[in-house]
């Protein structure tokens, strides 16, 4: 199956002065350390590819047998491909998982903030699929990745045979103010006293199962 060709005629200006992913070099280093920590959990069976797209080149992890069912997996906000892939290792025994780092959301994603009120993310996914020679596959998205998955499926339904999402963003409008009110005291407490116990209290509202990798 040949790769689809199309003109990359949309230029998105990249911010060369300041990253949209980190604010300081120290912050960048911490993000890199966490990325490597989750990547090390995947072992030698994971492949790392550089993916060219119309907005620049990013990274994608690939894991699973060559004859496995191909699935495109899209991670959550401010995480990265190995964070999601480390949770899907059992699935990779029978499926071929393609997990790109989302633009503006991962230390190894393209350092650009894409607009959310147009089809920029959907076209980025299209470029990723074309690079990987994926014609029509299942798509799985978590949180922010769930929103990206649905945006892509809406614009290119002929490229998706199944879609699954986990706590997808942008589907149900919640009470943002109330959510922030619940989080702010815990965030302030951790900022004033960055202990492990205060970090655990903060994460209690974000994840269901805590472990050293997420707490680190």
Explain the overall architecture.
- The protein has 216 residues and is of the alpha/beta class.
- The protein is built from 7 helices and 6 strands.
- The protein has a 6-stranded mixed beta sheet with strand order 1-2-4-3-5-6.
- A hairpin with a 2-residue loop joins strand 1 (46-53) and strand 2 (56-63).
- Helix 5 (176-192) runs antiparallel to helix 6.
- The longest helix is centred in the last third of the chain and has 17 residues, at 176-192.
- The chain is globular.
List keywords for this structure.
single chain, 216 residues, alpha/beta, six-stranded mixed beta sheet, 7 helices, 6 strands
Number of strands: 6
| Strand order across the largest sheet | 1-2-4-3-5-6
**Helical proportion, percent range:** 25-40%
- Our count of helices gives 7
The largest β sheet comes out as: 6 strands, mixed
Can you tell me the residue ranges where pLDDT is under 50 for at least 5 consecutive residues?
1-16
Separation of the first and last Cα atoms: 43 Å
Shape, please? globular
Strand residue percentage: 15-25%
